[in-house]
Structure formats: C-alpha cells, structure tokens
Specification:
The protein is α+β, with helices and mostly antiparallel strands and 394 residues long. It has two domains: 217 residues, Galactose-binding domain-like (Jelly Rolls); 152 residues, OmpA-like domain (60s Ribosomal Protein L30, Chain: A, 2-Layer Sandwich). The protein is built from five helices and 16 strands. The strands form four sheets. The chain has a five-stranded antiparallel β-sheet with strand order 1-4-10-7-8, with no helix packed on it. Strands 2-3-12-5-9 form a five-stranded antiparallel β-sheet, with helices on one face. It is elongated, with a radius of gyration of 27 Å. It starts with a helix and ends with a strand. Its main location: membrane. It is found in: Cell outer membrane. Keywords: Cell outer membrane, Membrane.
Length: 394
C-alpha cells in the first residue's frame, strides 16, 4: 500500500507525456510553411503563410523568416529575436499606444490571425495549449488581455467585436527572449477555429508605456504594442467526467447506519465524528485549509484533523489513504504535484500526533476527480479538498 502514491503519480505523469506526444491540432503552429519569402508588411493578409489568415481581412499581420533580407528575425523594423523554433514567426499589432500622425483611426487598429484546427474539439475533453511570445524590441507599449479564442465557426473581427477567450494573459513585457505560456481548456464540443489576438472592447483596452527609447522612434513597432508569436501547439490531454447534477451532501459523510452483514469491523458499528465509516468510501476533511497555492496547513485546520487523530487512536487496527485534489485551473502537472503535497501535509501532521507511518498512505489526483463543475467559483472550491478513506486492517 505504501506504493499507491508513487504508482498514481507515475501513471498520471505518463498520461501527461502521452498527451505531449499526441498530434499538434494546430496546423503550421510554428509558421514554417509559407508560399514565398516575405518582402513586405502584412504577409498573412495576402495568404503568404499556409493555413493562417488575417482577421479582419484588411488587417496586416507580419511574417518574419530567415529567408528574407527585409523581414528576417535579425533584420527588420520591429525588433531582433531568434525564432523560438525553426526559422519563422508571426508579428501582431495588438494595440496602438499613440499615433505619430495624430490619427484617431489608427488608435483603434488591432490585428488577429485565425487558423482552422485539424479536427473539432470534443465535449468535456481537456486539451493543453502552449505558445511562445515576446514583446518586440522596439515597441514602447505592452498590453494585457492577449487571448486565444476557440469557436465553432470562423469569426470576423470588427470594431464592435468583443469576446471572452478561453485563454487570456496578463501583462507581458519581456523583450529579447520568449515567454512560454501553457494552459488547459475544457472543450464544449465542436470548436474548430482558433483566433489569436486581443478581444476586449475598444473602450476597455489595457495598455501601458513600458520602454520609451527615442532612438527607436522611427521604427515600425515603436508606438505600438507589437508582439512576436511562435511555436503554438494544442494537444489532447484527457476526458473529464460529466459534472454532478446534484449538490454533494453537506457534511459529506453517512449519518445513518448501513445495512449490517454481521462481518463488520468494530469501527463500522458505531458513528464517529465523521459519521459511519465504510471501507473505501471517501470522506472530505472539511475546513482543512492551506496557504494559497501552497501545501502549508493553516492553523484552523487542526480542529478537523484532530477528529481524525482521535478516530485513529480509538480504532488501532485501521489504515487510511489520504488523497489531495485540486480544481482544473492551472497546469495539470503542477496541480498534480500540489494535490500530493497537500495530502502529504496531512500525513505528516498525523504522524506528528503519534499515528504510525505503517497505518497511513497518501496520494494526489490533481483535478481528475471533481465533485462539482469547475466552471463556477463555488464548484472549484468544492473540488479543492483533502479526503480520506479506510482501507481495512491487517
């Protein structure tokens, strides 16, 4: 039994590695396939990069490639950077900070690109999205709310368009190197198009000046929040169970006696502070709380944990498994590690109270066993928990 945690961790790690080996559902995600070498701005608008198109059709996203003399990664009017992968990458005006020619129209300009995925996304399937981006060297503005929007049909961006993308970033102002962004999304089903850009309404643009260098004032990207993008990928990860239709019982333990068979153990015959215990039936440890994003137990958790200590002291023959769980926000492997660390924190506390190691086992499941929907704050709160169950005696 001591190997339960190790086995589960290795199993889920293999799932993650398996997902990474799946086919990238974004065609030409590294922008390596092109029609001709770029020699002017707006190469995506004229269909110069395979599978990708500009939206709206009259915007002019740029293409940089080592084959070009004017638009190479090391020689262009936006900024120098080595491609994150391969020889080419994308350049987008996300927002305009100011207009040198005092044009109001220019202040409302922004660019997006769109691609059709290799296959539609499937309902309740979870996918890992990754991309790399960098603020252009000569740009003196940065923005938040760069996003990735997945839709069932192609969309046309106009000056009135706004949407809430499935993936949305905070401020990115790193220059000269690539920032890797990784996130997961749960598909509604049927999403077949990916659009990259910024989707807030024009009145809510979030832009700030970050690096004003007069030496770059004549450069194309200077008065704009101009970003480079490279190496986009979308891989299948797993399938999530359907959310529970009803609310879990509160408190989540059995208050009435089960139908006895005559072969019950002593710990099954009378209610405990957690109600009646049944073999392999998880019980949520309510009010076991941790520091945000960490596995450090808060002081108020001891009241609940001491109930478990008393049960373990009363029934000397029981063994328990402690399991940690998270919501699905964040990276799957980080969630898995956090869930196991929190289960171990409970394990360590019980040992500190005199419970022997041989009676305790712990493991983490990440977000793979939700109690409720992860689409609401209340549901995510229920899913962030530590449970235990009795596995029997020797």
């Amino acid at each position: 039994m001591q190997y339960i945690g190790v086995f589960v961790l290795l199993f889920l790690q293999n799932i993650f590695i398996f997902a990474q080996k799946q086919e990238n559902l974004i065609p030409n995600g590294s922008f390596e396939v092109y029609q001709e070498c770029p020699d002017e701005y707006g190469w995506f608008r004229i269909g110069g990069v395979a599978h990708w198109k500009a939206t709206p059709p009259d915007c002019t996203p740029d293409y940089f490639h080592e084959c070009s003399s004017k638009f190479s990664p090391q020689n262009n009017t936006c900024g120098k950077i080595i491609p994150q992968e391969g020889k080419g990458f994308l350049g987008l005006i996300i927002r305009v900070g100011h207009s040198p020619i005092q044009s109001t129209d220019e202040l409302f300009y922004r660019e997006h690109v769109q691609v059709r995925l290799k296959e539609p996304l499937k309902h309740r399937n979870r996918y890992i999205f990754t991309m790399h981006l960098s603020l252009a060297e000569y740009a003196c503005y940065a923005v938040s709310k760069i996003g990735v929007l997945f839709t069932k049909n192609p969309i046309l961006i106009n000056d009135k368009f706004s949407a809430k993308p499935q993936i949305e970033l905070n401020f990115i102002d790193t220059k000269g190197s690539w920032v890797k962004v990784t996130d997961t999304l749960v598909a509604e089903g049927g999403e077949e198009y990916l659009t990259l850009g910024e989707f807030a309404s024009f009145s809510k643009k979030d832009i700030r000046k970050v690096d004003e260098n007069p030496a770059y004032e004549k450069m194309f990207s200077y008065h704009r929040a101009y970003y480079f993008f490279d190496n986009l990928s979308l891989h299948w990860l797993d399938v999530l169970p359907e959310p529970l239709l009803g609310e879990p019982p509160i408190p989540p333990f059995k208050l009435t006696a089960p139908a006895f068979t005559g072969i019950e153990k002593p710990w099954q015959l009378e209610p405990t502070e957690f109600g009646y215990l049944e073999p392999n039936k998880p019980i949520v440890l309510n009010n076991v709380l941790f520091e945000f994003g960490k596995s450090v137990l808060l002081e108020e958790s001891k009241y609940e944990l001491n109930k478990l200590v008393r049960i373990m002291n009363e029934f000397k023959d029981i063994h328990i498994v402690i399991s940690g769980h998270t919501d699905e926000i964040g990276e799957p492997m980080k969630n898995l590690k956090l869930s196991e660390d929190r289960a171990k924190a409970v394990y360590d506390y019980l040992i500190s109270q005199g419970i022997t190691e041989k009676r305790l086992y712990y493991t983490g499941y990440g977000s793979s066993k939700p109690l409720s929907s992860n689409k609401t704050a209340e549901g995510r709160k229920k899913n962030r928990r530590v449970e235990f169950y009795v596995v029997g005696d020797e």
